[in-house]
Design a protein that fits this description.
By secondary structure, the chain is of the alpha/beta class. It is 23% helix and 13% strand. The chain has one domain (3-163): 3-Layer(aba) Sandwich (Alpha/beta knot). The chain has a five-stranded parallel beta sheet.
Length: 164
Amino acid sequence: MPEELLAYPPTVIVVHPRENRKKCSVEPLRGRVGFQFVQYHANSPVSLPTGPYVRLGIGGPLLSPAESHLGLLVLDGTWRWAEAMEAQYQEVPVRSLPPWRTAYPRVSKVFEDPAIGLATIEAIWLAYWCLGRNTSGLLDHYHWGDQFLELNRDLLRSAADSTS
C-alpha cells in the first residue's frame, strides 16, 4: 500500500547505534512501506513526521483500537538502552501493550529484562494487532514468530471470541 494511502502516520523505529543489526528483530522491516528507521543520537532527538504519535512503552494506558489513526514511536535497543533513550521522548504519550509472553530467548546475565517485555518485532506486531492494522508479513523473518503466536494462542482466541 503506498504511504500516502495509509490511514495513519508511519511507524518510526529509533534504533540505538550499538544495536546489532544482524540480531535486530525489526531489521527486515527496513524499506517496507509504513516504517521509518532513524538512528538514535544522545544529543539530538529525532523529529517525528507530521501527525500525532504515541510511544510504545511500559506504564502507560493500554493501546486501544480508538487510537488506530496515531503513529507509533518505537525505541529499539536493549532494555537498558531503551530506558535511557526514553528521556528524549517524554513529550510523546506512552501506551502499553497487553501482557503477552515473549518467545525471544533472554540471555542477559547482567541486567534483568521486564517480565512483560517483548522483542521489538513482537511489540510492533501486537501493537498493530491491537490497533486493527494489517499484521501480515511482520513476523515472516522473525525466527520465533510462530512460537510467539503459539505462546499467546489463548489470548488471541479470547480476543476473537469477545469480538464475535
